Amino acid sequence: MAKKLSARIKEINEPGHWLKLNEAAQLLQTSEITLRRKLKSGKIRSQFRDGKYYIFIKDDLYKEKKEDIIQFESYLKEKEIELRELKKQIIDQKILIEILEKKLNL
Questions:
Q1: Where do the structural domains in the chain lie, given as residue ranges?
Q2: Measured between alpha carbons, how far is 70 from 63 in angstroms, rounded to an integer?
């Protein structure tokens, strides 16, 4: 009994974040339905407040997932820049083709 109590106290004092169900699903890259199943089966810590479910995310997992998101967003920005450059090259190539076709038709 004392072990359960000390484990519960440790769990309560554990640093973390309470996220709305949809926010937690996005962060964890899973569906809201999956999280609902887990919270109803007691596999994850949750609270029902103001008509919404909140999921507890441990601080280390939260930081890890946030870092993954930041890295992915950075990767996407790089690819967007690369895509813009490729689109410019395509436009330049089309202009060059038009010029060459006009010269051939003369």
A1: 1-105
A2: 10
The rounded average pLDDT for each run of 10 residues, N- to C-terminus, in the chain (106 residues) is 54 80 92 93 90 91 87 93 97 94 86
DSSP of 40-60: HTTSS-EEEETTEEEEEEEHH
CA gap 67, 36 in Å, rounded: 25
Q: Which amino acid is at 62?
A: Y
Q: Tokens representing 69?
A: 């998101």
Tokens 């060059």, located at residue: 96
Q: Which two tokens stand for residue 7?
A: 């484990």
According to DSSP, the residues that pair with 70 across neighbouring strands are none
Residue type, 51: G
Q: How far apart are CA 73 and CA 71, in angstroms?
A: 5
Q: pTM for the whole thing?
A: 0.56
